[in-house]
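Entry: DUF4704 domain-containing protein
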Amino acid sequence: MCSMAGLLGVLLRSAENIFTQDVGSIKQIKWDGTPLCYCIQHLAGHSLSVIDLHGWFQVMTRTITTIWAPHLMLALEKAVCGKESRGPACTFEFFGECSGLLASGDSRWPFTNGYAFSTWIYIESFADSLNTATAAAAIAAAAAAESGKSSAMSAAAAASALAGEGTALMPRLFSFLSTDNQGIEAYFHAQFLVVESGNGKGKKASVHFTHPFKPQCWYFIGLEHVCRQGLIGKAENELRLYIDGSLYESRPFEFPRISKPLAFCCIGTNPPPTTASLQNSQPQCPLFAEMGPVYIFKEPIGPERMARMASRGGDMLPSFGNGAGLPWLATNDHVQRMAEESSLLDAEIGSCLYVLYHPCLLSGRFCPDASPSGAAGIARRPAEVIGQVHIATRMRAVEAIWALAYGGPMSLLPLAISNVHQDSLEPEKGSPPLSLATASLAAPIFRIISVAINHPGNNEEIYRRKGPEILSRILNYLLQTLSSLGAGKDDGARDEELVASVVSICLFQKHNYALKVQLFSTLLLDLKIWRLCSYGVQKKLLSSLADMVFTESSVMRDANAMQMLLDGCRRCYWTIREKDSLDSFSLNGDMRPMGEVNALVDELLVVIELLIGAAPPSMAADDVCCLLGFMVDCPQSNQVARVLHLIHRLVVQPNATRAQTFAEAFIGSGGIETLLVLLQREAKAGDHHIPETNTKADESSSVQRSEPGDSGGGVPGQSQNEGSLKERDQTSEKKDFESQPLGCGVFSPSTKVERISSVSENTFMKNLGGISLSISADNARNNVYNFDKNDGIVVGIIGLLGALVARGHLKFGSPVSSEMTSSLFGAELNDAGGGMFEDKVSLLLFALQKALQAAPNRLMTTNVYMALLGASINASSTEDGLNLYDSSNHFEHLQLLLVLLRALPHAPRAFQSRALQDLLFLACSHPENRSRLTKMEEWPEWILEVHISNYEVIFSNLKTFYLFSMLVSFPLSSLIACKSSSWCGLWMQENSLVQ
């Protein structure tokens, strides 16, 4: 009644008069406007007209720079999303004072095989005393103990409560009574629903349900009494309670057998004493509530139909018979589908419907029956109004938003923009106070849109007016504005609120699949929009996308999620600036934490891995092609290395069938050729990316940044005086081997990148027997695992190649001679290697060897060494270190071992020393290893080449050479027999090894 009297408009005008006093004022008014906003919210939740909504927008526009604009927007959001908005648009209002509906009786008892009752109800108050509530809770607790269920309120009731005390007023939901005062009644005992029945023998029984109903909350209530006759004559009786379409509770309850005709059918009350002489001892118990359409069925309708009725809502006025027609006048597929489902439901329930009373049909003191028999005039059962029953009509907030203007909920978006360009009408930043004020309204506006978009009219308006593109532009403007103003950079709370609201827009769209795909592609999957947010906000976005894969994988597939995420990864999470690269975290080109960037790349690849895993096997080839194309085109080493590890995880996953599918897709889609291209790129890069490693932990190492096509610096040359190498140089090379060269903590778009090594990284890095142990910082910025290494691509290639070989997907052919491959790194590959060489795998091994030789200081690191050695002995994993002390380690893939041995002469001395020690241990620990080493065609050439490369320190290495030869059972006389070889004999003579 307050809404119909126009009270909301009065409150809005009062709010405008009060809140505008704060505009341009330094001092805040002393009067608190929060209760006024709460009253506005409560009234608008019940009913909001278009005129009042327009006035609401005007108030917020005039108070946009005050603290009350966000309060008014939050009030509108709660009005749109509140529980009152769930109710029907037209309802009966029972005032609790001798009010209700009294339907006509019947010449017989209509409920012989059970019954069903359903309606929408909003209980204003239960009008119970303390004793009533205590007694009701005690009875419900006892009923719960019998049924095995419990509720919070019934469990808290006092066990000593008297069951009959203070129960005089128990508002009736309905009463079906015969002429002898027998029948069925449903009433509320405090907040619990009770169903009571009595038969002609004078017996009465009741069932107390355990669900505590809340006042001032809309419910769809369904009651169903099922009576089935058994094969041996025993009946199965069951009473069911449905709440909001779901079966909440089912209790055994004997169905009453009544022979007398139906005398009273009351809704919201029981028969008044003046009408029924048999009820003189019982006062009238009316209901203080609003009630929607009332359906009474002659038989049970089942859970499925109850759920469909609840889903349809209380606004629909059913049509039955031939006059119902067909739902062909629909504006879109969603409306058409709703109309068809409603028509089908009406056809199914029409035969078992006894009476239907709809509020919109009430005229004067009578409400006609809208059931098939009543509408056809076969049986006239109009309901008479008892006391005062008003009809409440209202307009929901989402309907008012749709009717306000073209675009529906998009009419809210101008409130989030501080200024627009006069010619292009593009949003642009205004004054800082105004920009912050408007940006603070963005999250509530997006949440309102997420709820309003489920309305068919709003859904159609957003789809027709290109809503996703408009939302994308405004979201981009908002995030740039917040970034430039530095708002929320400390905790990112405002950006995080925006992420949650945008995610809700995409997830709450349930009826228009094409619109949902557009929303995903323009809002969530476009990383360019979110690049200016903090690390935590971007990680939350990617984590949300990972969660959505399990429920929205088809939508993300149709939105081309994988390609969009990879493109966004290349443009936003770069380490080498490209022409279309975009600054992340800041518009000012500030220092970019590399640990955070790589952590975001890892999080993004988790989303892609989940997408690939959720796809059917038939899409494996397309997904692998997408990843291979990205690796070939992308110059970002940090991203390519991680994609290689992603493919490795797909190939070695526990599901053997899926692993084989991805391995075959990788090989069949040009994976070997792609690895050749990557190795060619690594070989051409050389050693110029190696930074100068300082000896102090607190000194920073700078890295020269270059464009993808720039050659960068030169390869570090060796000393001019080769014979004057000192122990200092050996120590430096050992550092280059043990440390990871490219470990930049922070990098900038400028030419120089500096890094300060964290204390935890330098203090806790340990190495014990080939097992690497590291304790890193907890956050992504200082996490040592997030630092980019120059050897990441080669490590990924070795791991992937080893996995494919170990599982039998690749087999080694004949070795490729150096003459055949002399032009491999001098020209581009022809036909991806397929038309030039017969054995691609042998060519790949040769390319790996040449890449290691071309960049020994950059690529011959601990990670590469462990990966090669682990692949040679077929270790399950080298991520946590390789345990060489395991006696089961033996050489299985000698071709991979040959790559390591042939690259040793070009490796740093620390690399050579570590390799010789480990090979010595493996040869001594397993006879088969020693046999395989000595029977290789390359024995002993590779070890001699190692000594040739270190001839200036021959004395220190000669001892290792003698020891190694002795342990592998290779006598020195055999070495002397090799003197006929020109190069071997020349080397021995020059160094006076053979006297």
